[in-house]
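User: I'm curious whether this sequence folds into something compact or stays loose and floppy. Could you predict its structure so I can see for myself?
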Amino acid sequence: MFQITGVSVPNRNGVRIFGGPPDDRKVRSIGESFAGGVYWVTVQNMGTLTLEDIGWTPQQAWGVRLNSSPDSVWLYQGGGQASIAIDADGEVSINGTDMHTTLIARGNGQPAHSNEEYLAAAQRFAPVVTFYHDGDAGSEEQSWPCSIDFLLEHSTLRRGQHDYSGYNTNGGTPPGIAWFKDRCHIFFQDHGGNGVMHIVSPDGLGGWDRPASWYHGSNTSAGPSAVEFRGKLHLFFRDPTGNGMYHESSTTGDDWNWVGSVGLDCDGQPEVIATRECLYLVAVDAGGNGIMYAKSTDGEHFSHGYTGYNTNSWTSPSVAWFNNEFHIFFQDHGGNGLMHITSPTGEGGWNRPASWYHGVNTSAGPAAVAANGKLHLFFRDPGGNGIFHQESTSGDDWGPAVYLGLDCDGQPQVTVHHDDISLACVDAGGNGIMVGIIDPLAIKHPAQNDLAAHADSLCYLEIEQSAYRGQMSDGQVTAPMYFTVQQRDDGQVDITYLMLYAWQGGQPCRADRRGTEFNCIVENYGMHQGDLEWVTVRLDPALTAIEQVGYACHGTIDGEHGGGWWPTEPDPTRGGATYLREGERPIVRVTRNGHSCRNGWNTGSDIGWAETGGISGLVLILDLFSNLDPTPACPAWRPFKEDHPGGLIPLGLTAEGKSVNEPWAVYGGRLGDHRLNSFESATYVNGRHLDDWDWAYVKGIGWGAELLGKISDEAIYGDGPWAPGTRDFVKNSALLSMQKTPPQQEVPQQAAASESATAQPTSA
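Assistant: Here's the prediction. I'll summarize afterward.
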């Protein structure tokens, strides 16, 4: 038996002591007698000292082992009074004697508690979750929580990303794209002019910069095209006042040398590729529709000619080298069918393969590239502006056409870098240069291990609409709730409860029309696939009581629109605020559609809301939540109950980034695709159509706000949320590795299916 009579620390850092025998671990006090077990002395912002009572020692004294080290044992006789001193470096002494040990930063030593203790605390303090309803039939939440396994059973795992480069060109004049010296180069016609402009990026997605040759020094009358060949970057562009095809090259990607004309007069953009043996260019004959080619084996001198096939004027063909053949794809002359010819030399002997008519139609010139042992084809929707992708392992048998989520004008442009396909094009109806990384990955109904194997930030789940409702059956939310555990440096423990959804619906708003206000839901603002929300319960070091509860809203607890931290005891500075509770358990009020976690304390009414934007007197953007008791149509979610089909499932990553339980914890991509939202419609909260007067009011504000650019990016860009692998509260888990719970059923994998156009070409 021993006592800690005092703990001296620098800068008045807070000190907590907890521990004891396995069946009696709790917060301890200075001067209390300790007998048996392990004790932790935690110094705020510094670390922890572990004291283990080891009983009688060979040294004929009682012993306390420090930090599990056999070389650091404090020996005492009788009552054993320990005055502990800790200096600024964390060095420990007892009763003035240097113990040759230092405080251990949290995470470097053993956890303060066992897995069983953490799991028991997570079960004990798990929240009761209620959802929105206001007593009006149909007002209830429409998208309920789900498990990751349910989500995967209704998803396709894809890889890719696209964004706006931040630069503009002229509508319908595609930029050229090439990789050179591990930088992505885009060349484009100056917006509003005809100068050849040049930007570079380290990854082809962001960080676009202007090199010294930002204005290239030349002008052009069409989009340029570029490619690397034999250590040089080659650029091709059309004469600014004529139709000749010009050529420049650079060994640095910035200092350019004039090479000259390739000997062709053409309309529209040239399309150039490089094989190991040659540069090869295709374009449309000037003033006509013949598909012309130019070929060079030294990068300076070109032979050229006519392929014998025609396309439509100013609609550039595309070319790729695959399986020792040149493949040219083009829009059918006089129609919109996508056509395909091949040649081993590119100078003659053109053949019509089985996919001579490709089976799809297009409204612009296509783009083709070889990558990952496959031939990839990109083309524009024949009746719209969506960009579609097909692939083939033979160059002739083609898979289904898959929409990339990108809408563009004119021809897409593609190139390959490290097996990733980089894409550039012009934004539909505008002039923004859009960029993307395209990967053919398409695992339909993936397993959790597939997420772990494809964990990078370019991956995303494309979720089927059939999953949007979530898991609710017979008046019960059947989904599990996930939780993570982190041990804080001050001894407190954060248990974060995660709630996963397949869909987030339209934006709740309040039409703030004086005297005739009403709440409504505006579509499609705020809509996106997937949703991940959470609430953090902060426990005392002994895991015996809640100290405060943090409610996450819009990706944060503490931010401008976050739900904030709420105390256990009434806070007089906040009007006596506490977190709302059911016994020991926090109550979480989930907001309508957006699923933010709110505390329902002291709203003053059954229906509450938090304003997250808008203009007073016109429209307010709301987090809309309900304090009403659950109903059969809108039940409470209690996954901690013994008979609950989903239960509570631990989640976490070790300091080394390994999953402690569920493989999907490693996944760092998005849980949903990318979509562009615009104002389409609105309903009352119960789903009924607005009357004519209310619809006119909402429509006028919606269209006016879009016209004036007053809609937030959060409402317009519908991106699925980032997965657990990116979340700080998942990393550095206090849990030790455990078997996966519950057992995972493997789901067969197959390629994603999609419809493709079937109209026949008019001529060839």
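Summary: Helices lie at 115-124, 148-153, 448-453, 692-707, 713-716. The mean pLDDT is 92.
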